[in-house]
């Protein structure tokens, strides 16, 4: 063994690379350990640990240079630091993208949709729907009339319910009987009107879907032949089927629940302001915040529904092409390729559905937070008002019931508005196809000739299909049609 000369101790030196060297070369003999060093090497004694060492010059361990070991260790350490920083930066970018307003929520780069007309807004879509059902407006009027009566009856029930409980507690028998009679009457009226309302809205829904499909089908039949060169059969059948079916819940569900909860929420808000205007204003502020979130969520759902219908139509197009040409697919053995094409659109559908679910989770998070905030504020401010003698326990009970009614009405309005926006977004292509003008072949009246004489000659005629303007099918054609004698 080589001996290292030192002034104070004969203990072998400890180098920072020794632990790393032992991890790679665990089995070695101490007899093979040799040191060739200068006098500048630092030495550690028993019981002490040195954190910093001066570099060792001209040394080797089993033929490996200590300087190279140090350099390699420093390079690997710097690479680890760079990798760690890169991972942290990627996590930060990912968190920024998934937060509200981030790039993960954007639909701008998903698909390029061909716009044949101006975009369909909510009010324009509702106007077109009213034009389809206006011939049977008596059904709509009956539905809305019974809706108003049912909404007013239901919003009056919590008032008389609370009054009945506190009148029974105070042993006021006459007041208790009167409140109970009114409760029974309101329940009967609300039940009857709700049944008639649901029936009328269901009939209006059926009329809307039937006439929408008729109008769309007749508009497609009157298009020029070149229109069908650019549109696929799978896309058109998807518009007639799933897109029109998406509109089937607009009148029966969306408009029905929006108007009912809007009336009930307005009545609850007026009652709250009459009971206690400070508590009413606090509840109004919370409901306004919830309404703002509701509008953002509704616009997002409209975009998502539009893309879902586009991707569904593309997937149906792939499936229809494959099934109609199944013999050709089997001959060339392209089953896996067709499956990949179909999976491509399914992955896009799953991606949009994932974002929809995440947006719905954010919407529910905001609703539950604001809903429980309303309860806490009502209890705190109402309890302080009771202690101060400004309101009674009966009024506070009514306030809590109507505040919950108001917040739930706001939630129902928001949920059905988002559903309405989703239906309008899904049916946007349907309204664009319905607005297409018929072909000139059907618009022109034409003229019937009584007698035809002479001949017809085509000189240097070229022909292009409108959907394939770059391909010339007939070039410099010359035809002469002579009239045959009778």
UniProtKB/TrEMBL annotation:
<dbReference type="InterPro" id="IPR036640">
    <property type="entry name" value="ABC1_TM_sf"/>
</dbReference>
<dbReference type="InterPro" id="IPR039421">
    <property type="entry name" value="Type_1_exporter"/>
</dbReference>
<protein>
    <recommendedName>
        <fullName>ABC transmembrane type-1 domain-containing protein</fullName>
    </recommendedName>
</protein>
<feature type="transmembrane region" description="Helical">
    <location>
        <begin position="182"/>
        <end position="208"/>
    </location>
</feature>
<feature type="transmembrane region" description="Helical">
    <location>
        <begin position="370"/>
        <end position="389"/>
    </location>
</feature>
<keyword id="KW-0472">Membrane</keyword>
<dbReference type="GO" id="GO:0005524">
    <property type="term" value="F:ATP binding"/>
</dbReference>
<feature type="domain" description="ABC transmembrane type-1">
    <location>
        <begin position="141"/>
        <end position="422"/>
    </location>
</feature>
<feature type="transmembrane region" description="Helical">
    <location>
        <begin position="138"/>
        <end position="162"/>
    </location>
</feature>
<dbReference type="Pfam" id="PF00664">
    <property type="entry name" value="ABC_membrane"/>
</dbReference>
<feature type="transmembrane region" description="Helical">
    <location>
        <begin position="269"/>
        <end position="297"/>
    </location>
</feature>
<keyword id="KW-0812">Transmembrane</keyword>
<dbReference type="GO" id="GO:0016020">
    <property type="term" value="C:membrane"/>
</dbReference>
<dbReference type="InterPro" id="IPR011527">
    <property type="entry name" value="ABC1_TM_dom"/>
</dbReference>
<dbReference type="GO" id="GO:0015421">
    <property type="term" value="F:ABC-type oligopeptide transporter activity"/>
</dbReference>
<keyword id="KW-1133">Transmembrane helix</keyword>
């Amino acid at each position: 063994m080589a001996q290292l000369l030192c002034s104070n101790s004969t203990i072998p030196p400890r180098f920072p690379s020794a632990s790393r060297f032992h991890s790679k070369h665990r089995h070695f003999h101490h007899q093979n350990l040799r040191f060739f060093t200068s006098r500048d090497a630092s030495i550690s004694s028993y019981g002490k640990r040195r954190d910093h060492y001066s570099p060792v010059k001209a040394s080797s361990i089993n033929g490996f240079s200590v300087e190279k070991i140090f350099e390699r260790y420093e390079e690997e350490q710097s690479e680890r630091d760079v990798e760690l920083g890169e991972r942290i930066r990627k996590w930060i970018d990912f968190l920024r993208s998934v937060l509200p307003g981030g790039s993960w929520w954007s639909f701008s780069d998903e698909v390029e949709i061909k716009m044949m007309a101006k975009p369909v807004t909510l009010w324009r879509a509702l106007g077109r729907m009213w034009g389809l059902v206006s011939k049977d407006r008596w059904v709509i009027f009956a539905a809305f009339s019974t809706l108003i009566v049912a909404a007013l009856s239901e919003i009056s029930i919590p008032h008389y319910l609370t009054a009945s409980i506190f009148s029974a507690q105070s042993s006021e028998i006459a007041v208790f009987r009167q409140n109970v009679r009114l409760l029974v009457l309101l329940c009967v009226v609300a039940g009857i009107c709700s049944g008639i309302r649901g029936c009328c809205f269901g009939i209006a829904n059926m009329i809307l879907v039937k006439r929408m499909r008729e109008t769309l089908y007749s508009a497609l039949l009157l298009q020029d032949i070149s229109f069908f060169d650019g549109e696929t059969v799978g896309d058109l059948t998807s518009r007639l089927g799933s897109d029109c079916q998406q509109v089937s819940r607009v009148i029966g569900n969306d408009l029905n629940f929006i108007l009912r909860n809007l009336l009930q929420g307005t009545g609850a808000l007026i009652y709250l302001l009459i009971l206690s205007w400070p508590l009413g204003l606090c509840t109004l502020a919370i409901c306004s915040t919830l309404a703002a979130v509701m509008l953002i969520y509704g616009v997002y759902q409209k975009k998502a529904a539009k893309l879902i219908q586009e991707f569904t139509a593309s997937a149906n197009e792939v499936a229809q092409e494959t099934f109609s040409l199944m013999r050709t697919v089997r001959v060339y053995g392209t089953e896996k390729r067709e499956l990949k094409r179909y999976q491509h659109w399914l992955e896009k559908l799953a991606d949009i559905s994932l974002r929809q679910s995440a947006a719905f989770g954010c919407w529910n998070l905001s609703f539950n937070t604001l809903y429980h905030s309303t309860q806490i504020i009502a209890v705190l401010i109402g309890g302080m008002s009771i202690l101060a003698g400004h309101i009674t326990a009966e009024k506070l009970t009514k306030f809590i019931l109507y505040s919950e009614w108001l917040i739930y009405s706001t939630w129902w309005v928001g949920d059905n508005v988002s559903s309405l926006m989703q239906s309008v977004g899904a049916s946007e292509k349907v309204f664009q196809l319905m607005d297409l003008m018929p072909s000139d072949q059907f618009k022109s009246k034409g003229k019937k000739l009584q007698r035809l004489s002479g001949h017809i000659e085509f000189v240097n005629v070229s022909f292009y299909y409108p959907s394939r303007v770059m391909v010339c099918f007939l070039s410099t054609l010359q035809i002469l049609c002579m009239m045959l004698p009778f």
